[in-house]
Amino acid sequence: MTGKTQALPLAAPVVINRSAWPRRLKGLVLPALILLVLEVVVRVGWLPSYQMPAPSEVATTLTDLAEGALWKHISASLLRVLLGFVIGAGLALVFAAWVGLSREAEAYLEPTFAGLRSIPSLAWVPLLLLWLGIDETSKIVLIAIGAFFPVYLNGVAAIRDIDRKLVEVGQMYGFSRRRLVRRILLPAALPGLFTGLRSGLSLAWMFLVAAELIAATKGLGYLLSDGRETSRPDIVLAAIIVLAVLGKITDGLLAALEKRCLAWRDTFNGQGAEQ
């Protein structure tokens, strides 16, 4: 016996890999409950079907549209949203980096941007019609305007919220400006940038409806307008459902990219029912 105790190796933490499917299925409970209540309310006559058709009627309309021109409307709207979002978000990231890194740029640009972002989306429609006509350019520009400001605001805030000590450490180690941006500023700002991108994508879908009111002959916004003019609430609701599904899918793709790019973070994800 030497009197010395031998240190026991620490046990590796147990990682419980629970499937995400039960949690995702919980998200279907509320929509299913709403659909069930609406079906009952309409069938018993508490709501007139010409104002609120039963969910089963909307499902039938969706099926009929899917066999016809629905995919043409979806592809037209999806292309407009993607082009507008890429243009708007790309410009927003450039200006956000410029304003976030330079007080001088902020003094020149921020007052103008603050005024422009308070203009309602429909107020741009007549001006874009006069400037760009009724072709695709005016629609894409309007969507780009909608995507620009959320990305810009969140981008500037993300850069300005970076801990100053991190920047000072990089400067102390002699980082060049490019290396400082790549190794410190960009990783620290990424969470805020992704928040802005997801907000901008949501607004791009919202601005789509206003954009497709500009003399469109196809698209989900056109389908909404056509349902209103023909007094077909089932078509209006079908178009709204498709817009919601597409918005959820595109946001989910961006959320998956965010999770992949920010896998290094160790953040609080909320407390679940199971401990």
Write a structural description.
This protein is an all-alpha fold and 275 residues long. It has a single domain (56-261), classed as Orthogonal Bundle (MetI-like fold). Helix content is 72%, strand content 0%. The chain has helices spanning 21-26, 29-43, 55-66, 70-101, 103-116, 121-132, 136-160, 164-172, 177-211, 220-229, 233-261. Helix 4 (70-101) runs parallel beside helix 7, helix 4 (70-101) packs antiparallel against helix 9 (177-211) and helix 6 (121-132) crosses helix 7 (136-160).
Short description:
The chain is an all-alpha fold and 275 residues long.
Return the average pLDDT rounded to an integer: 84
CATH architecture: Orthogonal Bundle
Biggest beta sheet summary: none
Which structural category do the helix and sheet elements fall into?
mainly alpha
What's the domain count?
1
CATH C-level label: Mainly Alpha
Range of strand content: under 5%
Q: CATH superfamily assignment?
A: MetI-like
What is the terminal-to-terminal distance?
Answer: 43 Å
Quaternary form? single chain
Looking at the structure, the CATH topology is MetI-like fold
